[in-house]
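Entry 14. Ran structure prediction on the chain below.
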Amino acid sequence: GVILRILYSDKLINEETFERICKDTYGLILDHYPWANVTPTLHKVLGHSVELMTRYNEGRGMKAFSEEGLESCNKHIRRYREMLARKTNFQDNIHDVFVRLLCQSNYLAFLQRKSIEKVHKDTGHSDNDELFLSLVRE
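Output, structure tokens:
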């Protein structure tokens, strides 16, 4: 629990202590469970996380590089692919999903979407349908 809390924080860490904890944990796993294979993910966390934090993140935890944002996007992507994208072929489907994600991540598009939301409240369109349609190639 401690290793993951440190890894997913954005706090400055004591690199030497954290490295010792990771190596000790790795050693305990190998000593007490010699029959188990260490997964590549566990190896990366215990063997290389300190190096990544030191070299690429100024000695801080890896919160800025976590996959939480990508994971939370999965339900939106699934809904876009199933309900809001063309089903003519895979390329069109993925293109429509990409454009919708672009609309949501672009600040200028966000501002435009807010103005569209006010104009089209009575039409029944979703918040960003007009913006989406303006960005889609036919």
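The radius of gyration is 22 Å. Will compare against last week's run tomorrow.
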